[in-house]
UniProtKB/TrEMBL annotation:
<keyword id="KW-0175">Coiled coil</keyword>
<dbReference type="Pfam" id="PF02498">
    <property type="entry name" value="Bro-N"/>
</dbReference>
<dbReference type="InterPro" id="IPR003497">
    <property type="entry name" value="BRO_N_domain"/>
</dbReference>
<feature type="coiled-coil region">
    <location>
        <begin position="136"/>
        <end position="172"/>
    </location>
</feature>
<dbReference type="Pfam" id="PF03374">
    <property type="entry name" value="ANT"/>
</dbReference>
<dbReference type="InterPro" id="IPR005039">
    <property type="entry name" value="Ant_C"/>
</dbReference>
<feature type="domain" description="Bro-N">
    <location>
        <begin position="4"/>
        <end position="113"/>
    </location>
</feature>
<protein>
    <submittedName>
        <fullName>Prophage antirepressor</fullName>
    </submittedName>
</protein>
<dbReference type="GO" id="GO:0003677">
    <property type="term" value="F:DNA binding"/>
</dbReference>
């Protein structure tokens, strides 16, 4: 909907709220279902389909059955169709509804867009109950409208966050797929290459994060991370005849490192946006 077609709501203590729209050429449209319900039709959409000839479909924010605010096509009808619904209504007060539309709603829209026409003001003065009912109806309509608008804004923000998550997931998926394709053990130097840094720097980062410590030239995981399948200790035989222990990482451990580093904004090269941070992370 354009700003020119802003929705204006008129409330009546007996007939409830009626959404209206004034088009650019000054034509007044009424929300079909609102009119049909006010006139006592048990199936408002069917009544609009059967009796209305000038239906116009506008896209407006609406709250669905799950409480979610979505932009939906909504049927609006011209003044002539309002009269068609009035004539076919079995509601005893149908004529009273027509009088309200003709004497108050339409003159109000065409004159200054306010609700209180001269006729309505006269009723306020002479009928205190009318004023009370009108005030309650307007209060309820305003409350509902504010709730709908708040939900709509909340969902717009949620959709924005979800879109960011989808984009982030797309980046992550590429790296995760790479990890899943690999089955063997990896030295820390090989994992460090994913991040454009040296094995020494990667070990230092993992040490700073309290993940591992060095014991007799071998990096060992702290107790909290042992027995989780992250690493494998292998014995390496040297030409001198000596043997040394070497820590190698499993693909599960590679994913563990990925999650830990990502939490601090350290990403693999393939997920990174080009920025000055990239250069700082390269050893």
């Amino acid at each position: 909907m354009s700003k020119d077609n802003a929705i204006q709501v008129f409330s009546h203590p007996q007939f409830g709220s009626i959404n209206t729209v004034e088009t650019e050429n000054g034509k007044v449209l009424f929300k079909g279902n609102d009119v049909a319900r006010a006139l006592g039709y048990s199936d408002a959409p069917q009544a609009v389909r059967m009796h209305c000839k000038g239906v116009v479909v506008l896209t407006t924010p609406s709250e669905n059955q799950y409480g979610t605010v979505v932009m939906l096509p909504t049927k609006y009808i011209p003044e002539a169709d309002v009269y068609r619904l009035v004539m076919r209504s079995k509601l005893p007060e149908a004529e009273k509804f027509q009088d309200w539309v003709c004497e108050e709603v339409l003159p109000s829209i065409r004159k200054h867009g306010g609700y209180l026409t001269d006729a309505a003001l006269q009723r306020v003065v002479t009928e205190p109950d009318f004023l009370i009912g009108l005030a309650n109806a307007i209060k309820e309509e305003r409350k509902n409208r504010l709730e709908v608008e708040a939900k709509y804004e909340e969902q717009k923000q949620l959709i924005g966050k979800q879109q960011e998550q989808i984009e982030e997931l797309g980046k992550r998926t590429s790296y995760v797929e790479l990890v899943l394709q690999c089955k063997g053990l990896l030295d820390i130097t090989q994992i460090a290459q994913d991040y454009g840094m040296s094995g020494r720097k990667m070990n230092a980062i993992l040490h700073e994060k309290g993940i591992q410590y060095k014991d007799n030239k071998q990096w060992i995981l702290y107790a909290a991370y042992k027995d989780k399948g992250y690493v494998h200790s292998a014995t390496l035989s040297l030409e001198s005849g000596k043997s040394v222990m070497r820590t190698q990482w499993t693909q599960k451990g590679r994913m563990f490192i990925y999650e830990k580093l990502k939490a601090d904004g350290i990403l693999p090269v393939m997920e990174r946006e080009q920025s000055p941070i990239d250069n700082e992370m390269t050893a």
